[in-house]
Amino acid sequence: MTKILMVCLGNICRSPLAEGILRSKLPLDNFLVDSAGTANYHVGDRPDSRSIAVAKKFGLDISNLRGRQFNMNDFDTFDYIFVMDESNYNNVISLARSDKDIAKVKFILNEVYPNQNYSIPDPYYGGNSGFENVYKMLDEACSLIADRLT
Ligand code: 4NP
User: Fold this and answer.
1) Which of 124, 133, 137, 138 to mutate to test the pocket of ligand 1 (most atoms within 8 A of CB)?
2) What pLDDT, on a 0 to 100 scale, did the predictor assign at position 8?
3) For the whole model, what pTM was predicted?
4) Are 106 and 99 in contact (CB under 8 A)?
5) How far apart are CA 114 and CA 13, in angstroms?
6) Cross-strand bridge partners of residue 7
7) Residue whose CA is closest, atom 13 of ligand 1?
8) What is the CATH number of the domain that holds 110?
9) Which of 86, 74, 87, 88 minimizes the C-alpha distance to 5?
């Protein structure tokens, strides 16, 4: 079983979308996909209504996901930890205990633009178009991740 974790700040906008999108592209008998936030603001919350809506527009139901906070044990559980932006990267790395932990953490857009460390912009304070933009960026990255791992 290959285990992949998507991480953003709140675990209600970007990483639940990334979780739903990647899950839809992988055979789930061999892969586990989860998501978490570096902050604890939205623990137990369902995804932002705008993320649920854009996922639905593209045929995915993410309404059953619930927010949780990233923790150190996730380094043991997961093989790959994909972060959305540099702040997420720094927050996750601050909890790493070893070079092995650090090596698991990747910028998700480096799948599309290797070594550039580009960010998936936080859509929380913007409008619906920001969520559709995020969806499309994540869909491209997740297609490449799924191709590489299958
Ligand atoms: P996310 O977006 O990190 O993509 O889930 C955010 C959601 C909530 C907040 C910030 C970003 N917040 O400050 O509550």
Assistant:
1) 124
2) 98
3) 0.98
4) no
5) 24
6) 36, 83
7) 10
8) 3.40.50.2300
9) 74
Q: Please choose, from the candidates 89, 90, 145, 92, the residue with its C-alpha nearest in 3D space to the C-alpha of residue 114.
A: 145
DSSP letters spanning 53-91: HHHHHTT---TT----B--TTHHHH-SEEEESSHHHHHH
Residue 84 neighbours by CB under 8 Å, 6+ apart: 6, 7, 8, 9, 14, 15, 18, 108, 119, 120, 122
Minimum CA distance residue for ligand 1 atom 11:
10
Number of domains in the chain: 1
Domain around 117: 2-149
Query: In the predicted model, what is the mean pLDDT of residues 67-96?
Result: 98
- 31 bridge partner residues: 2
Question: What whole-number distance in Å separates Cα of residue 123 and Cα of residue 9?
Answer: 11
Q: What's the whole-number mean pLDDT along residues 46-67?
A: 98
